[in-house]
Write a structure and sequence with these properties.
- By secondary structure, the protein is an alpha+beta fold.
- It contains four helices and 14 strands.
- The longest helix is centred in the first third of the chain and has 24 residues.
- The chain is globular and about 50 Å long.
- It starts with a helix and ends in a 6-residue tail after the last strand.
Length: 224
């Protein structure tokens, strides 16, 4: 994952091409119909979140999802700790996911947050932040499970950076099947003329024009 930290610092996101193979993408998308794999289903339009559905996995997570969560956390924890220093925040994140989840669970955040999202024609996801309690790991990842060249049109991944005393900056992040995008949950440090300051980040998905789009969300803090 060479250049991961540099891309996050410069662009506010990083793309990991082909992180998940096509066969594994198909398997994860097919899990949507396995009711027993999930703890909760959310219909977005019922809550004003947009239009579409998502489902949170139950513990134990599917082996591939667990492996991705563990390996990505190990890569991202040093970046997260550096960001805390740049923003002059106290404390640090443990080196392993297990140690971090122990902290979450001790604070009552025990519900798993990895999820599968399903969008069909006309669906979209409003700009938002995935916050589930006081403990927040500052980075997360989304893996596109469907093929934009064959399965759907539209549905671009969106990031918006809300800069202090300036207009917001939006960006579309192109993804292929199996690509992952890593991005901030809530905020990131940005270097200015007087040192680092924090900028707020939100993410979403543009309207699906046709077809069916599945994605996997990997969030590292559990929910209360």
């Amino acid at each position: 994952m060479s250049g991961l930290g540099e891309s996050l610092d410069e662009l506010g996101h990083a793309v990991l091409p082909g992180l998940v193979g096509a066969a594994d993408c198909a398997v994860l998308a097919a899990r949507w119909d396995d009711e027993g794999a999930f703890r909760k289903r959310v219909v977005m339009q019922q809550h004003g979140f947009g239009r579409g559905e998502y489902r949170y996995f139950s513990y134990p997570l599917p082996p591939l999802v667990q492996a991705l969560r563990v390996s990505l956390y190990a890569e991202l924890a040093p970046i997260a700790n550096r960001w805390r220093g740049e923003l002059r925040l106290p404390g640090d994140f443990p080196a392993t996911l297990d140690a971090y989840l122990e902290k979450c669970h001790s604070q009552g955040q025990t519900k798993p947050t990895p999820l599968v999202l399903r969008y069909e024609r006309g669906d979209f996801n409003c700009l938002h932040q995935d916050l589930y309690g006081p403990l927040v790991f500052p980075l997360q990842a989304t893996v596109l499970l469907s093929d934009p060249a064959r399965d759907f049109a539209g549905g671009e991944f969106l990031l918006v950076e809300q800069r202090p005393r300036a207009q917001s900056r939006g960006e579309v992040v192109p993804l292929g099947r199996g690509d992952a995008v890593v991005f901030p949950v809530r905020e990131r440090p940005r270097r200015g003329v007087r040192g680092f300051h924090r900028v707020q980040m939100r993410h979403g998905v543009s309207r699906i024009r046709s077809g069916l789009r599945f994605s996997l969300g990997i969030i590292f803090h559990d929910a209360g």
